[in-house]
Amino acid sequence: RLFPQIGPITFDAFVDPLKPIGFTEDNKRLILSVPDDNASAITEKWKTELEMNFVEYATEITGRFIRPDLRTTENTDEKNSFVSAPVTSEQHIPFSQDAGLNPDYTFDKFVVGSGNENARAIAKAVAEGPGKVYNPYLIYGGVGLGKTHLMQAIGNQFAKDNPNARIKYATAEDFLNDFTNSLREGNQDNSNATALFKKTYRSLDMLLVDDIQFWAGKPQVQEEFFNTFNALTKANKQIVMTSDRYPNDIPDLQDRLKSRFEQGITSDIQKPDVQTRVAILRNLQDQNDLDIPNDVLQLIGEAVDDNVRTLEGAFHKFEAKIRFMNKPATIETAKSILAEINANKKAVVTVQRIQDVVATYYMQTVEDMKSSRRQANLVEARHVAIYLTRTMTDKSLPEIGRAFGDRDHSSISHAFNKIEEQVEKESSIKELIQDLAETIKNG
Ligand code: ADP
Ligand code: MG
């Protein structure tokens, strides 16, 4: 995120050497070590920028408010910082550590509204009487609407009420990886890795599997889950699953799994209405010890209507403005973050956009840029466009290759390295790259 803003030189000098060491005791800051004085001088300069971007990004990917804690190497005792934070009694939930549950995902922190009240009511019933009526329980809904939170709330509550219960939370991908690893290990050294896998999953009291749409078109893991499923349900053990699609819409999901899923109950989570969105913001405000006027919460709640994750993102952006940039908790500040969010939405960078801008700058056509012609100016345009695509999008080398006239990935990485070298050596190239990146983002 910082790269386009600060450019490659500063990035290499400052961001690249930062090393994540561990979390602070309260679990709210990620300690980043800054190697030497030179870097720490730059750190001062870019601190605010870094904090803002860090908080935003961390929120997006973890759903938690995590700040960076920059420390020079001398101040970081690397060994000790790795010791994980002690769990306070209030948070303490037996077994949740092993179960893979996030202690923040509780019923208490789940705001109820018209879009999720059914799902929540059933979740509560499952947590209180697992394996009895609603088995399996499938929570269905769009991205960022609280499926994972609700599913883990079931696990957390069950763990709290039954400290000895064996509970496991796994994403569908974890389950697949555990399974394939056990097969591989079993083959390599004839160990009983496969038996161990089966034992782990089949002796649970509650199994929570997140995002089962991931198994689309993967028959082997479906087969294994079918067996796990049967073993657990036969013993009246609870299974909870989430999916962003109905089982019928998951491509190549085996019919027998579909019919198993239908034995239980499915509930869906819909987008929150404006009242619920404001209630979620109010909740976040209380949890984070802030005092934000109602009309400000109302404004943010009305404006951010895609899903709860983006709503939380907006809240933390607002929080960051107040805490780090000394902005007041007013309508004006809210409007400024909403404008930024809108601008970011518009600034989705596509390969096509990059190709258009670069081709125009070099007075070439996009078609020629994708061709195999080797005229010098054209080659440079091509390489610059490839470099920008690699740095400004998350496309893989083969994907970039396809977007540039079906080149193989080695010629893409060759082009990238070439420009990268020049950027390091020649400030004119560096400035050109920055200008182009700016134009690509902002028009
Ligand atoms: P999903 O799994 O459906 O993509 P998550 O469960 O990860 O969504 O939710 C995204 C974020 O929104 C999480 O931080 C979660 O705590 C929060 N969230 C979702 N729904 C609610 C709710 N009803 N009340 C409070 N927080 C919520
Ligand atoms: Mg989820």
TrEMBL record:
Residue ranges occupied by any AAA+ ATPase domain in the UniProt entry: 133-270
Places the protein is found: Cytoplasm
Keywords: ATP-binding, Cytoplasm, DNA replication, DNA-binding, Lipid-binding, Nucleotide-binding
Function summary: Plays an essential role in the initiation and regulation of chromosomal replication. ATP-DnaA binds to the origin of replication (oriC) to initiate formation of the DNA replication initiation complex once per cell cycle. Binds the DnaA box (a 9 base pair repeat at the origin) and separates the double-stranded (ds)DNA. Forms a right-handed helical filament on oriC DNA; dsDNA binds to the exterior of the filament while single-stranded (ss)DNA is stabiized in the filament's interior.
NCBIfam families: DnaA (TIGR00362)
Subunit annotation: Oligomerizes as a right-handed, spiral filament on DNA at oriC.
Stated name of the protein: Chromosomal replication initiator protein DnaA
Organism annotation: Fructobacillus broussonetiae
Lineage of the organism: Bacteria, Bacillati, Bacillota, Bacilli, Lactobacillales
